[in-house]
Amino acid sequence: MKINIKAIAIIIIAAVIGYSSCKKPEYSFGQLTSPSDLKLTVVVDSADAANPAGMGSGKVKITLASNNTITYRVDLGDGRTQVMGAGTTTVKYNSPGTNDYTITVNAVGTGGSTSTISKKVSVFVAFVIPADILSNLTGGSSKVWVTDRTNPGHVGVGPADGFTPSYYAAAPNERAECLYDDEITFIKNANNTVSMSINNKGQSFFIGASTVFYGKSGGDNCYDIDVSGVRNLSFMNATSGSNSTNSTGYQFLVPGNGLINFGTGGNTYEILSLTSTQIFLRNIGIDGLAWYQKLKVKP
């Protein structure tokens, strides 16, 4: 029997090639290393001791750093998630008012290994105040207001679902003098937000139902209270169910104890009407009633 050496060699080579092609390739992720020393720094734009949530831009700087990290997945706490790199990224929150957000960072390493860190942040976002409200309230810079003491109903009260002081409306000069000497200054800021300062000469008037709220006891009267400092107001659309026949449709929130010059325990004031010389405000007091006050420009 003759042996065809060339044919056998071809068969052997083909078999080797076929065997090699049937072997599954092997892959490796290499060493799986989790991110370490993860750091998250959060800085609110224009924040200071008086305005820790910022001055209304809604911008927050997020700075990320770690070892062995490929990328960062950042949950901003408002329903948004972004992929970021190391270093500083500026994000902007959009919900008006002061809101708390928890920023959660997942640092992603090789093979999908992760490390996580979170921080809570309070951010103030200024409502875009209509030009006429801004102008009438501040005069384009600042304007001082006082209680319109000779106007009937300069303070009053009514039901929570109403928009007039139908239960009681003060007669001219009827209330205690401390209600009438307060000076309220509304200030237009550079970013078209509004802040407020009060000079209450050391005392403000509280309704009896609210005295405990302010740390006092007693009935309707004048009480010592410190209202110094400038407070950044949060404007928003009114939530009372009012309409264009009885309101401007806007309200503002006073931070802290919520006091302007007539303490009811409330902190949110709806602007029922506003001209360049008069304001008519409504707020829901701690007693659940609607309280009213009228201010005029200081003569």
Task: Tell me what you see in this structure.
With 299 residues, the chain is mostly beta strands. It folds into two domains: 36-125, Immunoglobulins (Immunoglobulin-like, Sandwich), CATH 2.60.40; 131-297, no CATH class. The chain is 9% helix and 41% strand. The protein has two helices and 21 strands. It has helices at 5-22, 131-138, and strands at residues 36-44, 59-67, 71-75, 81-84, 87-92, 97-108, 114-125, 142-147, 155-158, 168-169, 183-188, 194-199, 203-206, 221-224, 231-232, 234-237, 250-253, 262-263, 268-274, 278-284, 290-297. The strands form four sheets. Strands 8, 9, 10, 11, 12, 15, 16, 17, 19, 20 and 21 form an eleven-stranded antiparallel beta sheet that branches. Strands 4-3-6-7 form a four-stranded antiparallel beta sheet, with no helix packed on it. A hairpin with a 5-residue loop joins strand 6 and strand 7. The N and C termini lie far apart (130 Å).
